[in-house]
Fold Protoheme IX farnesyltransferase.
Amino acid sequence: MTDASVTSPAQTGDAEFKDYFALLKPRVMTLVVFTAFVGMLAAPTPINPFLGFCAILFIAVGGGASGALNMWYDADIDALMKRTAGRPVPTGRVDASEALAIGLVLSGFSVVFLGLATNWLAGGLLAFTIFFYVVIYTMWLKRSTPQNIVIGGAAGAFPPMIGWAAATGDISVASVLMFCLTFMWTPPHFWALALFVKGDYDKATVPMLTVTHGRRATRVHIIVYTALLAALAVGTGFTQVGGPVYLATAVVLNALFLKGAVDIWRRTEDQAEADGYVTEKKFFKLSLLYLFAHFGAILIEAGIDRLGGYPWA
C-alpha cells in the first residue's frame, strides 16, 4: 500500500499542469491509443468518424486513469527507484489522495462514455482492462511473483480488442491475434529493461525475474519468449489482419529481434557491466519500434483493404 511518508508536505500542492499530465503516463498512453486505433480501423465494420474519435479519446482517458491509479498505489516503491523517483506522487507535487480521486473519476467517466458512444462490450472491456492493470497487476502480481509482467502484460494487450469491439460490437480471431501480439511482446520488452535497471528493483524489493532468478535466467527467458513471439508475429501475416506489407515487416523485424535476443543471451554479466548494458538498451529501444511497426503494418493492410485490396487478389 502507498506509504504516505514518501510525500513531502512542503512540496504537496505545488503541482502544475505538466504534473497532472505526467500522472496519466502519456508515453504509455501513446501505445494504448495507437494500438486501439489500429484495432478499430482494422475491423471490417466502418465506424462513424466522430464516434471513432470519441472512442479513441475515451480509451486514452481510461489508459490515463490506470496510470494515475498505478502511481497512487506504487508511490512507495516509485520513490525508491531512480527511474520513477521523479514522478508527481513520490516527489509530493501531487498528493496521493488527489491521484486516487483523479484515477477513479477518469475511470468511471471513460467507461461510461465509451459504452454510450459505441457499445457496452467496448465499455466493459475498458473497465476490465483498468481493473486488471490496477488490481490484478499493480496491487497483486507486481509485488508477489516474478511472473508479474507475463500475466500483467494482458492489461496492455487489451486496447486493440477494445478498438475492434468499439467498431464491431464483438470479439473476433483477428482482435485476439492483436491481443496476443502485444501480450507476447511485453515480457522480452520489460525484461530487457529489467536487465539494466536491476538495482532499482532490488532496492524496491519488486520480484522481477532479474531479482528472483538472476540476470542469466532472464536472458534465457528473453530468447525463449522472443522465439515464440516471432512465430506468432510472422504467422499473423497469413491471417485476416495480415498481408504482404505486414508479412515483409514481420519477417525483417523479427529477424532483427531474434538476433538481438541471441546477442543478449550470449553475453556474460561482466561483458554487460563493462559496456554499460549497451546491447540490452539497444534491444529495449528496438522493442519499442517493433510493436509500433507491426501495428503500423496492420493499419496499412487495413487501408489497402478499404481501397479495394491488392490488384492481384
User: Anything to note?
Assistant: The chain has two domains: 1-171, 172-313. The domain at 1-171 is CATH 1.10.357.140 (Tetracycline Repressor; domain 2). The two ends are 57 Å apart (CA to CA).
